[in-house]
Amino acid sequence: MSKSPWIADLSWVREARQPRSRRTLGLLLDAAEALISEKGIDDATVGDVAARAGCSVGAFYHHFRDKGALVQALLARLAHEFRETMDAAVDPARWDGASISEILEAYVEFSLDVGREHSGLARAQLGLALRSPAAATQLLELQLELSQRLADLLRARRDEVGHADPELAIDFALEQLRSLLILRLEGIALGSRLERVGDVDFVREAIASACAYMQIPPPHVGRPPREREECAGVKAASNRNGRRNHGVPG
What we know:
CATH topology of the largest domain: Tetracycline Repressor, domain 2
CATH class of the largest domain: Mainly Alpha
Distance between the termini: 20 Å
Number of strands: 0
Helix content: 55-70%
Order of helices and strands: HHHHHHHHHHH
Number of helices: 11
Structural class: mainly alpha
CATH architecture of the largest domain: Orthogonal Bundle
């Protein structure tokens, strides 16, 4: 799926590589992430994680008292990476010159990419949240913060909205798209009728629906392709330079 030019330089922000003394810990977390994504929490054994990481079971227990502690550490890393990625994704400077519809299009595209890349961990986080009040609170706080910051981006452009109540329309459209994304990413489990629809068509139709409700033009309408690409290209270069200056990996 082709990426919106506004997020061409945006990717999930990986935690920086650890010093040599903690390399094994990082390898174990990487292995657990891959295995949980492939097999789920219950079927990913300690032996599997150690083997995938290329270390002994004893090395595993040197770092974690049990598999539950490993999952907690993995979720803590995911939360840290989520926040770093969110900071880059909803930075107002990134979206200077973008319309509401372009922001929403990029949001849906990027959410699909990240949701699939971390599908196993997303399910693991949800499963843990059902058993752990602390995990549930952390998950809710991150979701609420992302929702609020995304809504702030759109409210700064409320004059584009033709709906009689722009504030309501923005909140409703974001909830609509979030629900569609959940259904898209968990479609097999939930029995979605949209499984047969490809990602490109899904994004186009989801955004068209939100735009029609909000009474705003769909992405790219009224802006020549060259102008659109040049504007987004300048922002991408600026964002890359900003991350290098602040030590954030690209």
